[in-house]
Design a protein that fits this description.
The longest helix is centred in the first third of the chain and has 47 residues. By secondary structure, the protein is α+β, with helices and mostly antiparallel strands. Strand 4 and strand 5 form a beta hairpin. The protein has 7 helices and 7 strands; from the N terminus they run ααβααββαββααββ.
Length: 241
Amino acid sequence: AIALDNARLFGDLQAKNEELDAFSHTVAHDLKSPLTMVLGYSDMLAHEIEGIDSAEINKICQSVARSARKMDSIIKELLLLSSVRKQAVEFRPIDMHPVVGEALQRIGHLTEQTDIELVIPMHWPAAYGYAPWIEEIWVNYISNAIKYGGQPARVELGFDEDEQGDIWFWVLDNGMGLTAAEQNKFFIPFPRLEQVRVKGHGLGLSIVQRIVTKLGGTTAVESKIGVGSCFKFSLPRTTNQ
């Protein structure tokens, strides 16, 4: 029993060390580019502002703001990823309609600036989960579908029920599609995130994987080159239907 406990403790410690390494790698890799841009433009403004016209200064300020927002987004994702592992939440029946609505509001800058056809069900089945986390899944899936969809983009949301009674929610896009090798790199544990730099999905889908696993569900992706991709996640169906 003591040996088993020691082995479990060693495994937990090893997993935490791997996650710490992954956090360090992500901070160094993903924050370096926007931080370099902010520092470069700030230095330019500090030393050469008198020789720069107002239109160019405005462009520089916009670039600095974009880079700052990018860094802010990365930091929030890292904090969310950590909190999902640690936080204990109460599962409740979820009304998916307002959850999807909140997710769409958060990515309004994408839906407003992009020529997109968005198809959403009128009614949703109830499932068990934790609404704030499920909202994060929708934000990730829908924003990726818009970014990597066709031109114009068509994004469809929907659901199916499997034989076990679980509900599969999905987001279908009309993008270029993913190869089998690319699909195999999605939804891996965060400690191996450095292996996943497939079209910018890595960190977000690692968050999705952790959330869905904590909620007792499963993630999946189906894709066909030249047709599009369908990203899915399952949740237990509520028992009071």
